[in-house]
Amino acid sequence: MTMQVSPTSPAAAAPRWLDADEQRAWRAWLYSSQLLMDRLDRELTHSTGISHAYYEILVALSETPGRMMRMSELADRCLSSRSRLSHAVSRLEERGWVRRQVCEEDGRGQLAVLTDDGFAALEAAAPVHVESVRAHLFDQLTTEQVEQMRVLGETLLRHLNEA
Amino acid sequence: MTMQVSPTSPAAAAPRWLDADEQRAWRAWLYSSQLLMDRLDRELTHSTGISHAYYEILVALSETPGRMMRMSELADRCLSSRSRLSHAVSRLEERGWVRRQVCEEDGRGQLAVLTDDGFAALEAAAPVHVESVRAHLFDQLTTEQVEQMRVLGETLLRHLNEA
DNA sequence: GTAGCGTAGTTGAAGGCTGAACTATTCCGC
DNA sequence: GCGGAATAGTTCAGCCTTCAACTACGCTAC
């Protein structure tokens, strides 16, 4: 693509197109992460009836003292918007896995609390999920690659969490 | 978590839980890929009105001779289900960016064809997208890390595309 | 104490995705 | 050629996500 440009605004300046190697790396990252997430989500959903999004909510709650957490903290932890989390918690409430409870210290706040049934559902799902993650991720990589993946991921996270 | 298990079925056998390092690597991968995709999608959507999913469809069509492709081939290329692609193409048709055309060789088939308007929309969006990918991915990594990412992604892809 | 502003969370409408059912066409074996 | 299986694509219902209102509470200052 040839473009006639003025070098004023960042994206209007001559685009820094990807070269062939960069294209390959980008496609490999894009496809592999999409396919992997898809696979993990499907395996979990089909064998336990819990989507990965719901699973993350249950995990977050289970790791907290009292198995409860403020809605907005939970949303952050699950990389979810508040609206999305609110809907999701409503649906988990219908399943009897989570209940809402008003927050003592802050009248505006709500606590999401993991029920015993919810914890049991999580306990049942966890072995299935960890086996998927092993099979499709860790079992495919060398120890060095796992380390590279961690460093790479943490580098990107630092950047993405800035301002 | 302690579990009483019979070593018969794969997931019923003692789960191969992740150790602390593996947890870190897994979380880093999970969060960074979610946040990165999210960011790229949002930047593209907000500045061009084209979601990343639509963008991928336009790119796939634009790279093909005649700027047309069979629906199912396009679905595979975009890691999309047929149903999803069918809906997406309908919506792109409404925007006048793609049109459907019956396939000569196979009466069951449909071709999705990129229109001139669709190509123009893609040309306008491409610089924005490449700049996002640079800013949030390539600019954050060393040359070695980009290479590692490629190898890692291609390794996972080989596994995920098996059977 | 109350006005004004910010924060916490929910709701509703609109659009997108999924899986299953459906239509239409082609392929294969006889 | 004809019947049955396979393939291509669409459609529908149900669920999920998003974005923009909206309610309710808390904080600060006058």
TrEMBL record, chains A, B:
It holds the Pfam family MarR_2. Coiled coil: none annotated. Signal peptide: none annotated. InterPro entries: HTH_MarR-typ, MarR/SlyA-like, WH-like_DNA-bd_sf, WH_DNA-bd_sf. Transmembrane segments: none annotated. Gene3D superfamilies: Winged helix-like DNA-binding domain superfamily/Winged helix DNA-binding domain. Residues 22-158 form the HTH marR-type domain. This is MarR family transcriptional regulator. The lineage of its organism: Bacteria, Bacillati, Actinomycetota, Actinomycetes, Geodermatophilales.
